[in-house]
Write a structure and sequence with these properties.
The chain is α+β, with helices and mostly antiparallel strands. The protein is built from two helices and eleven strands. The radius of gyration is 14 Å and the shape is globular. It holds the Pfam family DUF5675.
Length: about 160
């Protein structure tokens, strides 16, 4: 199976810039809240580790996305099995203030006043969403999250 990986590459004052890889290929940028040793609800990115991926068709965010993308949307791509976190979705947004611990998709990034932001978020989402759905449907339903690791590095080697 092609491994799905979130690799954190840069830290801002309140933000974290990541790369999303599927099978070793870069597919988009991700923006999250800061990396913190202590979890702060709504202000902390998900921890390093290996987690599940699933399609969530019942959470409230679905209504917004199904009306916005009726031909694309099959449920929110949810990162599951994260200790102390629930309803963590890969979704659209541009600033760390647009997330409460969820990764936001982006085609480009900028560093402004010490914080990262992603741009063309909807375009990145429309590109990466069907790729993730396809992987989940074929049973490739795990994601590895790591801080500045290589795309081929196994989490057990860290």
């Amino acid at each position: 199976m092609e491994q799905i990986r979130i690799v954190r590459v840069a830290q801002g004052k309140n933000s974290t810039l990541s790369h999303l890889y599927i099978g070793g290929l870069f597919v988009c940028y991700l923006l999250e809240d800061s990396i913190r040793t202590e979890k702060i609800p709504g202000r902390t990115c998900i921890p390093e580790g290996e987690f599940g991926l699933s399609l969530n068709a019942w959470a409230g965010m679905n209504a917004k996305y199904i009306s916005k993308y009726p031909k694309l949307h099959e449920g929110m791509v949810e990162i599951t099995e994260i200790p102390n976190y629930q309803l963590v979705f890969i979704h659209i947004g541009n600033y760390h203030t647009d997330t409460a611990g969820c990764p936001l998709t982006g085609s480009y990034w900028q560093l402004i006043d010490g914080d990262y932001r992603v741009l063309h978020s909807a375009a990145a989402y429309k590109y990466v969403y069907p790729l993730l759905v396809k992987e989940i449907e074929r049973g490739n339903d795990r994601v590895v999250v790591c801080n500045q690791c290589s795309t081929s590095e196994s989490p057990s080697l860290r």
